[in-house]
TrEMBL record:
Similarity comment: Belongs to the glycosyltransferase group 1 family. MshA subfamily.
Protein name, per record: D-inositol-3-phosphate glycosyltransferase
Pfam families: Glyco_trans_4_4 (PF13579), Glycos_transf_1 (PF00534)
SUPFAM superfamilies (UniProt xref): UDP-Glycosyltransferase/glycogen phosphorylase
Keyword S-adenosyl-L-methionine applies: no
Gene: mshA
InterPro entries membership: Glyco_trans_1, Glyco_trans_4-like_N, Glycosyltransferase_grp1, Mycothiol_biosynthesis_MshA
EC number: 2.4.1.250
Domain Glycosyltransferase subfamily 4-like N-terminal: 23-194
Binding of Mg(2+), residues: Y297, S300, T324
Organism this protein belongs to: Nocardioides baekrokdamisoli
Subunit structure comment from the entry: Homodimer.
Every Glycosyl transferase family domain range: 207-367
């Protein structure tokens, strides 16, 4: 294994995660690429050119080159409109044959569709990570969220039938790919994502650095602001907590960290904060780089992840790596990312009352739950992710060599 083409058509790894289309996938692609490069594998990372100032290729780090492909207008295009640009991106990718790749690893369905042509032309196996699927999202739609189109479902079915290997984040995602997409179980492998344990770690100086009082109760939300992530659930729960126990008010701080994504949240968050009368405790903060985010995690009493659907939930792992328990919705990968009762609490449903009760329990059990956080997060390093991924890559390349020999 010497050279891998990593494909992320719809979002550049250089984009700031936590807003727009940039989130966990961007972090995943870069962290995995870094660890592959550390293991001596060269990575070319292909994405769509969205700015006239973006050069055709950027040396990102030792062993990692980011390559911008011309496909459609040289400006950002809404994710929903990108499907139309898949053929142009696929053609541009397949024509990039100045280097030989041992394998292509595509991320999200648009990249999977776009990579199939190159996979055939280069005779390089295709490994695909869905990250999210339309069928899963449509099963658990948030209020005000739009259903994913049939064209995406068909695209994902096509990838499931044609990729040499699908990477699932969890056993639950693997079962979903097999049962809902008809993927062949021999061609699905589970590789857990990771967390950067040096960036995200406990930090007793974090509160002082952020100007927070030592006795503050900090309940944080981190992520893209959209209906699926449900930041409004935390806000409504905070209003219920304050109604139940007004004495919390002077100590409560609720940072909401991230920027709008897709059509944005279905309610205006500043409007909701005003309507709920909690403007004095809520702080709406812009998307933050990991170094600064790490401080907020470490300074928080609890991090809330109220999503309606989550394939994994890197935010939950990052918070736990920083020593902070997580109160998360009992959905999808969050059931793996959080150890119920050990490193956090899982909540059924999204009612403000249930969330207020869970957060109140979380505050009361904070010290005990904190003990379980770092050991749980430590089981998910990016080094372990990369080691498993290299194993999966090797299996798929040797299987395709055997196929070639048998057909020769
Ligand atoms: N993130 C960030 N800055 C922010 C908000 C989020 O860097 O202000 C990052 C966060 O650290 C995490 C990613 O965005 O690595 C979100 O990943 P997750 O799996 O939680 O959600 P996704 O965006 O993939 O749905």
């Amino acid at each position: 294994m010497q050279r891998v083409a990593m494909v992320s058509m719809h979002t550049s790894p250089l984009d700031q995660p936590g807003t727009g289309d940039a989130g966990g996938l961007n972090v995943y692609v870069l962290e995995l690429s870094r660890r592959l490069a550390d293991a001596g594998i060269e990575v070319d990372l292909f994405t769509r050119r969205t700015s006239p100032s973006a050069p055709s290729s950027v040396d990102y780090a030792d062993g990692i080159t980011i390559r911008h492909l011309e496909a459609g207008p040289v400006r950002p295009v809404a994710k929903e409109a990108l499907a139309e640009l898949v053929p142009a991106f696929a053609a541009a990718l397949a024509q990039t044959d100045d280097r030989a790749y041992d394998l292509i690893h595509s991320h999200y369905w648009l990249s999977g569709r776009a990579s199939l042509m190159a996979s055939r032309r280069w005779d390089a196996p295709l490994v695909h990570s869905m990250h999210t699927t339309a069928r899963m999202k449509n099963l658990t739609l948030a209020v005000g969220d739009r259903a994913e189109p049939r064209s995406r479902v068909l695209g994902e079915e096509f990838i499931a039938a044609n990729a040499d290997l699908l990477i699932a984040n969890t056993d639950a995602e693997a079962s979903h790919l097999i049962s809902a997409y008809g993927a062949d179980s021999d061609r699905v492998t589970v590789v857990h994502p990771g967390v950067n344990l040096s960036t995200f770690r406990p930090d007793v100086t974090a509160r002082a650095a952020l100007g927070l009082n030592a006795d503050a109760i900090v309940l944080a939300f981190v992520g893209r602001l959209q209906p699926l992530k449900a930041p409004d659930v935390l806000l409504r729960a905070v209003a219920v907590m304050l109604a139940r126990n007004p004495s919390l008010r002077p100590r409560l701080v609720v940072p909401i960290i991230g920027g709008p994504s897709g059509a944005g949240p279905d309610v205006s968050l500043p409007g909701l904060v005003r309507e709920l009368g909690i403007g004095d405790v809520v702080r709406l903060l812009p998307p933050l780089a990991h170094a600064e985010l790490a401080r907020w995690y470490a300074a928080s009493t609890l991090v809330a992840v109220p999503s309606y659907s989550e394939t994994f939930g890197l935010v939950a792992l990052e918070a736990q790596a920083a020593g902070t328990p997580v109160v998360a919705a009992a959905v999808g990968g969050l059931r793996t990312a959080v150890r119920e009762g050990i490193s956090g609490l899982l909540v059924d449903g999204h009612s403000a009352e249930a969330w207020a009760s869970a957060l109140t329990r979380g505050i009361a059990q904070r010290e005990r739950l904190a003990v379980g956080t770092r050991p749980h997060a430590a089981a998910f390093s990016w080094e372990a992710t990369a080691a498993r991924m290299i194993g999966a890559y090797e299996c798929v390349t040797s299987a395709s060599l055997i196929d070639e020999e048998m057909t020769a």
